[in-house]
Input
Amino acid sequence: MKRFYTLLFATALTAAVNVTAADDIKLKLADSKVTPGQGVSSDLAGYNDGEEKIFFYAPGTAEWTFKVADDGEYTLLIKASCDPAQGMNAKFKVTLDGKAVGEEVTLTSEGEKEYKVVAKLKKGENKLGITFTNDVYKEGEYDRNLYLHGVTVKK
Output
């Protein structure tokens, strides 16, 4: 009987750990809706399936719709990298349901790195947007670009 309770406890503990891990929502990059900025060609912003990343060679926005179980404060973990230009890295803004969240984020390195944005989400469906804001390009001289490698919503 003692073995039964030990097994039952271990199963319950494992289930509790899995529930905690299930609270994280990993948004699929391939499922995003990528919209180039006004007047920008559609081939300058999109999802690169071979490299599994979203690219912005010009201004644009990536959007996802997702659901959360409870109202509350969440952390958005945005994994990004960039091609700097004119001594400056790429910047992006985050919106939820069309409203700005926090300050504009400036990448602190060219390499892939995780950036945190804290947001209050409402139970049910939410719409997240990430917009590349400081594109600059001069043919043969410089070209600032932004790449998104992952987006996770954590409770």
User: Anything to note?
Assistant: The first strand starts at residue 25 and ends at 27. The chain is about 15% helix and 55% strand.
